[in-house]
Amino acid sequence: MAELAVGKPSGEYRKGLQSGISIAIGYAPIALTFGLLAKTTGLSIGETALMSLLVFAGAAQYISLSLLSLGTGIFEIVLTTFIVNIRHFLMSTSLNEKWEDEQAANKVILSFGITDETFSVAAVREEKVTSGYMLGLISVSYASWVICSGLGHLIGASLPQTLQESMSVALYAMFVGLLVPSMKKSAKVVFLAAIAACFNTIFTLTNTLSTGWAIVLATLLSAVIVEWIESVKNRPRGHGHE
Amino acid sequence: MSSQIVWMIVGMAAVTYIPRLLPFVLFKGKELSGFVQGILKNVPYATLGALIFPGILFINEDLWFGLLGAAAAFFAAYLGANVIVVVLGSIAVLSVYSFIF
Q1: Could you give the ipTM of this predicted complex?
Q2: Contact residues for A153 (Cβ-Cβ < 8 A; gap 6+)
Q3: Are residues A196 and B83, on separate chains, in Cβ contact within 8 Å?
Q4: Residue A138 belongs to domain spanning
Q5: Which residues cross the membrane (chain B) (predicted)?
Q6: In chain B, what residues touch A193 (CB-CB under 8 Å)?
């Protein structure tokens, strides 16, 4: 029982793997399509696999393909990638607070695998996050991403049209599945999600910001506003000393 | 492999990894103020809201497709279904939907 409470490293790894399965399912159709598009854009299978291996960021990889086909220069593509992925800075900062590991090197290596999806799964976990858990979570997601990218290029086709369409909901459904249990427990979570969703929708529909910045700004605004309201509400009445 | 593409990939990898890595180095062992910690604890839920909307509405030209998927996922999750069941359930609902329409 003592072992259970502490959480053996291998047990944590397995839990991470299990939590990563829905990510792996969600990545499959996106990665297959990425491989296919990379092929039609003129990338070799080696280049396609290399990009998925080294970059591991869905949205940025898709954008790079469309920029390549427009004949955009390399510097601009790298810069766009940076802008799209800067949101991960916020996610890593948040995750750092609940991820415990004395060994700094573990976080340095595993931070490579922080995506919207791996972050979301880890961040809503009730227990503290460990490196073993992150390793499991990331390895199954990463494997799905890299293997399916290669397969998409190799087969030169994605899933049947109807299945492809229905599977496009997978990652969104996962986000909903992660969010709802916390929403049921706390009104604060409902506000946080709703306010961020509103801001992001406004930024996106009015085309004021690129996708990366829209998510960063919507998230920050919502997180700060809700925190501020809460601190005002909890401030003791009267202006005496605390 | 064309060396130009390889350099592009290496550049993309670097600018993707740095924002992921930096917070773990910058804030290592630093005690942040209570207010900042509160904000960082809020980030996951705000992020989820922003990741879901408006993206889910645009997964198909048919707006109802995304809305139905969202509703199915919400319903399953509200009933306490495991995340994987939520994912497979909404895929199944949308498969039926696109089969009918």
Answers
A1: 0.93
A2: A35, A36, A38, A39, A43, A45, A48, A49
A3: no
A4: 2-167
A5: 6-27, 39-59, 71-100
A6: 45-46, 48-49, 52
pLDDT digits (tens, 9 = 90+) for A174-210: 999 999 999 999 999 999 999 999 999 999 999 888 7
Domain residue extents for chain B:
52-100
CA-CA distance, A182 to B15, in Å (whole number)?
33
- Which of B26, B28, B40, B42 is the best residue to mutate to test the A interface, defined by the most A CB atoms within 10 Å of its own CB? B42
What residues form DSSP beta bridges with A99?
A129
Both A24 and A55 in a single domain? yes
**CA A183 – CA A203 distance, rounded (Å):** 24
The answer, yes or no, to whether residue A71 has pLDDT greater than 70, is: yes
Structural domain contains residue A174: no
Query: Do A8 and A117 reside in the same domain of the chain?
Result: yes
A160, A192: one domain: no
Residue A173, in any domain of the structure: no
Please check whether residues A64 and A124 belong to one and the same domain.
yes
Is B77 close to A107, i.e. CB distance below 8 A? no
Q: How far apart are CA B43 and CA A48, in angstroms?
A: 33
Asked if residue A84 and residue A130 are part of one domain, the reply reads yes
| pLDDT under 70: residue ranges of chain B | none
B residues 21-40 lying closer than 8 A (beta carbon) to A: 21-25, 27-28, 32, 35, 37-40
